[in-house]
Amino acid sequence: MTITMPARDAGTRAVVPSPAESMHPVASTPAPEACGLTAEQIEEFGRRLDAVRERILAERGASDAAYIRKVIRTQRLLEIGGRALLFAGILPPAWIAGTAMLSVAKILENMEIGHNVMHGQWDWMRDPKIHSSTWEWDLVSSSQDWKHSHNYEHHTYTNVLGKDRDVGYGLLRISEEQPWRPYYLGNSVYNILLSLFFQWGVSLHDLQYERVIAGEKSRSEAWTQLKRIGRKIRRQVLKDYVVFPALAGPFFLPVLLGNLTANTVRNIWSHAVIFCGHFPDGTVVFTEDQLEGETRGQWYLRQMLGSANLEGGELFHLMTGQLSFQIEHHLFPDLPSNRYAEVSTEVKALCEEFGLPYTSGGLGRQYFQVLRKIQRLSLPKGRIAA
Amino acid sequence: MFSTVTARRPGRLTAAVSVLTARLTTPLLPEDYLALANPLWSTTALRGKVVGRREETARATTLRIRPGRGWTPHLAGQYVRIGVDVDGVRQWRTYTLTSPEGSRELSITVQAQPGGTVSPYLAHEMPVGTIVHLEPPAGDFVLPGPTPTRLLMITGGSGITPAMAMLRTLAAEGSLPDVVMVHSAPTPDDVIFGAELRELARTHPGLRLIERHTDTEGLLELAELDRICPDWADREAFVCGPAGLLDAAELHWTARPDRLHRERFTPPARTPGGSGGTVAYGDAATLSVDGDSSLLEAGEAAGLTLPSGCRMGICFGCVLPLRDGQVRDLRTGQVHGEPGDLVQTCISGASGAARLDLQN
Questions:
Q1: Contact B89/A at CB under 8 A
Q2: What was the pLDDT predicted at A322?
């Protein structure tokens, strides 16, 4: 299944699909507005977005570089401070402050820094220490496997049922088109477990165990991956749950519990933000035939319709790693994340101009919709609220 | 671009402590945290700190740099590759070290090239305190040992820098031999280190300084050496300057090539832009790539197995290092690339001759 890139030859195509054929959302997700655009309008939409991208690329420079360096510096200082305080964690204020600082540090490293650096957003700086080819993040997930399943698979096949494995993670029923099985009665429970142990879910995500079982993926390939993931798991587990506690001697327990709590806080937070990116009401899931002959304009449209934003202040956006601007991130995954906020005003205006939905809401409301959807889909006749 | 510097081998205790601290800082290195306090404390990345600036001429500035750990001492005449962040992007350039051997601080002297990206920034703007990135000193434009008794140095413009390093070293050792220095610059004010050289010549009878001010006296012809330095053929000769001077020197010394040392100061060759070109894929194949094809498509059509991902420029799964030449972004038409860059082969086309590294 290839995705064509006709942008180079200025849009001459032999067959122009009719408006109703241009977008193929699954039946359970509403997107009537998208089908109302003509092919030419969709391409114009794409060109306008390309122009936004080009402008940001031209402006990108010293202030952007300074931004990411400042975030990295802050995150590392927070981590040092948090871990240091946990050594005095036998005192409750020190434990609370230390765990809080370490949680924030881990969230920043995971989301604003690690995820974005591995997307190549900062490769333009040519700094080997802040580069997608060298960054290894503070998770039990190995960067190499993450980049494959996320940068490539998720971002190329975003929200396409059967191709984007983030739709359900191989564990959950998140779309009505996934056939119901008695296993899904535990949908909400699986989600809670995934949330608490999210870094483990992410770590094992690229193994694609269901494809190994189905015989589509070779066992030897999966074994090589598992060994690589195993090495990463070992280093992370040793660090947080063995070496740091051991250094505290008789006071190991506060350190161990603090590290465990910080990891869990990071898991729950990142799971919530990520799930709110693609599953609240109004987000569109597509069928696989959508990809056939998909133009650049249609790709932009699918990225936009499949994503949802979160509203909040500057600090909130920083803590989500700017994934609160999920729409902008999916339109421009390789632009520096600090630019998403300014780009969002233009994207929102473009959506209004073209009559497209721009799904956005506060964290509480969006997360509630996601949890409600998961609960409803645990039942065979579950319907998603219109 | 991403070569690692091998530091001196640590002792056993240091190694054990390193392993323990690495377990604490994984996936980062201990030095990544230490760098928060002092970026010069690194064993894997060679860095330096700019501790002083001195304007030599209107266009040229000397930068004093304190190197971090792992710096190996240089020989006079050698150069250093220096990485500087300009507009957020790390740019690497090569400059001769003008500091004498054995000095604790390094110095380079940068002449601003009109239209340059890095040299105007270094010469006119870079603030004291900036952290720069270094590679170990290199180059074989050095004095042979033992020091020859008679030297001839012919330099032009910024080519004076290696000669200056040599003269400073010899003067500091108190062993300045019989040296004839012929330097060309447009005017007396354009002679970098002019005052220092004239003072050296005044205090060291062994040094004979001949300044050629090309604005008023015209370019130096090497045939004039018979007149200004009759025993030129018996001297160890060091020539550094524009390409024309170096080519002329090669001809002039045909009879005694072993006496001639040359240092070339030319920017990397750039093929003119445009679309299509000949691209070498490692040692596996050299292909003629037309203007519309991506490097990925062209390589695969020829039967090569190349890394790939989304094939639309968003996932960076297809990147390969660019060894030489430039590429053209097929989405925008922009020609770009410097040796060491990682280019996305799925959205890059050829632009003139280029070479990609294939990774195993």
A1: yes
A2: 97
